[in-house]
Amino acid sequence: MCGIVGYIGSQKASPILLAGLTKLEYRGYDSAGIAIIEDGKIDVQKDQGRVSNLYKIKEIENLNGTIGIAHTRWATHGTPSKENAHPQTSNNGDFAVVHNGIIENYVELRKELEEKGYKFFSSTDTEVIPNLIDYFYKNDNKNQKELKFVNAVKNATDKLVGSFAIEVLSKENPDNMIVVRKDSPLVIGKGYGENYIASDIPAILSYTKDFYLLENLEFALLSRDNIRFFDKNLKEFNKKSDTITWNAMAADKNGYEDYMLKEIYEQPTAIRETIGTRVNTGICKFDELNFTKEYLQNLKQIYIVACGTAMHAGLAVKSTIERFSKIRTEVDIASEFRYRDPLIDDKTLCIFISQSGETADTIAALKLSKEKGAKTLAISNVIGSSITREADYSIYTHAGPEIAVASTKAYTSQITLLTLLAIYLGQVLGNVKEQEVSKLVNEMLELPIKVEEVLKTTEKVKKIAKKLYQEKDVFYLGRGVDYTTAEEASLKLKEISYIHSEGYPAGELKHGTIALIEKGVNVIGIMTNKNLVKKTISNMEEIITRGAVTTAVLSESIYKDINTTIFDNLIIVPDTDESLSSIVTIVPLQLLAYYIAKEKGLDVDKPRNLAKSVTVE
Ligand code: F6R
Fold it and tell me: Going from the N-terminus, what domains does the chain have, and what CATH number goes with each?
């Protein structure tokens, strides 16, 4: 998705802007550009393609200006091209703007501006913004320059329908920059005699740890030594900064070949940190939630709503939540939930899972649930993200920044946090036996060690990857929670290796899909549940008879119990409680997807057509 960087200070801006854009490359983009104020004019340089193209532009190297804005664009309106890349400028070049989000009424605004004599040179929705600002600036005779600038940006944003995070440069105000956001993230990093802007903290994390998280329709007027904040009516206010505890190393590759591999290996730490100090003498603490026994007893249902991998995390814990809370729990895809008039009211608790906290469909589903009277709880990995600001309650995974497009450590951390939440709900309701809880909690505390053990299977997984990488189709089968793992494993393979795959309930195969099984087709069977293993084995036998090549993912005790000679490949994972088995089982399958993509020579961190956070519908 699009990325934004900005700098105002005493250093040459262009290297800082380009380094920031490089850090945002993981979000996915198709063009990039920068604008810098120098010698009383705004110099814009942009190109289609990679940020590395900008490094080759001589003019950028020669720009010594100390204030600038920069952008990576992921095309929504208009093809990826130099003209459509940001920054976009006003006709007279007096204003330059970079923009994340979508202006839904840009066609009407364009028409209005054309009637006033403005011309348009791109197919973007963004180009209306600098021209609107220019229009309001020119027609303001009352204010002095700086206030005129703020007023013009405010008047322009008042006309915008949609979502936006905007940075604006003004030729007449060479020592100021304005930023504003609505439903699209933007943060300001505070330095000494300099300030930074980014759509995503890792872009500027190496310069500062003090951040202002802009709320919807808050305006910031930046100068080198000062940041002034204005609300939507331009009333000035003071804003408190937040300190981020991640270090820049956590957002770097730290010696790993790719972010995805690094993030797979970070899972023991991410799980440990997510558990943190939440469990103490068998009690799960969620001080942020003030759910009373009475409120929970009155609930008719719980909804878990999310997209993609985050939705799979919801599926993985659905039965654990039901087991402990005894409240009916449904899991839904946010883009479906939001348009199907779901039956929810104040007797529903809606839980929204989003690593980034910026996924448009999940945020819209949350807003809808609030309108219908439900209490909303956000689970995110990003403090201050949009979803956490909308929700009644927020709790956080502590996975650290996830940069690779394919989600790995966020998934296992989400399952960890949701399992703790399930125990907490059971404890508040008084539904759970102490012994049952302490058994599960002990298992949770052992998870980091078990995941470390699984990571030792890497060499074995690499060998299986070498056998599979030229396949066209792969099927993943499982029952119960192993079916959820099958779905998540299949998504990982699809998105980074471009191999078609399906995660399928093992018992459902013979109702149609088995027609696709023929000699040589690869099937991965996940079997970690003692009560269900016999059933899955007979499904595996059915496909072995039809010539399938099979890989079995087995928990240790099942491995010891069954005849494994029928399988072509084996992956063994440690035993754990059924509620947690998705965590240990997904890890070798993440590795499998990773090594298959590597065998194919693909860019695992930035798979084609995908973006890290999906801030558009
Ligand atoms: C897959 C993946 C996506 C995300 C989905 C939701 O590896 O990363 O399926 O899980 O786009 O993103 P968040 O959790 O940021 O809402």
Answer: 3-250 (3.60.20.10), 253-432 (3.40.50.10490), 456-599 (3.40.50.10490)
